[in-house]
Fold this sequence. Notes:
The complex is a heterodimer. Chain A is an all-alpha fold.
Amino acid sequence: MFGIDYSFRWRSALRALPDMLSGAWVTFETAALSMIFGVIIALLLMVMRQMNNPLARGFASTWISIARNTPSLFQIYILYFGLGSFGLHVSSWFALLAGITFNNAGYLAENFRGGLKAIPDTQMRAARSLGMNAFQAYRLIVVPQLLRIVFYPLTNQMVWAVLMTSLGVIVGLNDDLTGVTQSYNVKTFRTFEYFAIAAVLYYLIAKAIVLAARLLGWRLFRY
Amino acid sequence: MFSTGFTLNDLRFMLEGAWVTLLLTFWAILLGTLVGVICGVLRALLPRATIPLAWLLDVFRSVPLLIQFVLFNSLKSIVGLNWSAFTVGCVVLGVYAAAYCTEIVRSGVLAVPLSLRRASRSLGLSYWQDLRHVVLPIATRVSFPGWLNLVLSVMKDTALVMWIGIVELLRASQTIVTRIQEPLLVLCIAGLIYYLMSWVVSRLGVQLEKRWQQND
């Protein structure tokens, strides 16, 4: 029953490595873009949640609860297939990027809210009484401290974003790491070899991000 | 003016998909919690000896779930195991959940202050009594919110099993979309079902947490 009559062909699979590495770069780029946009939107959502305007508060909490309570694949689906109902046909890469950004923003906004609690109210009031306007106070006083507090969750979310880009293949993306792997897979049916290489590459990307974040954190937060 | 091809039968098909989602979540969490509690306690009590275990579990957290599904599915055919796609889905999700659960349990056990454990030992409790009557109740309370988050995230991650051919909620809605060509409506209903399932689970969790806090 356990007889393995499968001959592994690692050598031919490794010939796909250059293509897969360029796919890995697309994966990293997409994840990094989604994180940049995600952080900006999350900061906006965080500020909107603090506002007195019920419309802004409702918008922010709706965004966050949808992002956190539905699968990320569903969010990508609705952007890819759902927008077509309005006559907007987006590419699978755009749907993937927008989906992950939406998801990141929701999760990060929640992290930021937790981080914001650690910054005393008095700092905001002190900044305002020194003559800063609200935007300056956020930009110069609150956000820099906040980013330091949420640095670790931010790293985690970046790794998550890299892992989430693998979902692009389900909506037909073919130039990220999983997409390239899948297109080799359908040509050769060497599923195990190709996906094992992809798994190793994903692992290395994730570890590289954690390492880079640790170095950056060490450099930034020395004092 | 508003007409739709969406019928009650379609809704039933989607609810059957949602049932598959719930079943997958249940088995994966059961497996993940059992393995995770054992590994987590070992990680907390024997931190040096179990470092290789930590590396192994870290792999499952650093590789996309989709790739894990495909890899395990092809490994299954290579080895010649005659498992259904549903079993494969449960096992992969279960191991993935176990990797996270280990960390949750480990931090829960480590949250029990060492002085408290020393106090219980000096009151004459044995090592096992200390674990059973002091560490277990405190660690459970500390870990529970994290565990609940894990349940919710596994429920959302079950959507990926469609790739290995299981018809769960999202796959069911995609099938209906292909037939009636109204993606927005169908996907919104699917989203609503996911949202409701998450809401119910987190509500139950909050209730449970409140009941435990009454005794504190």
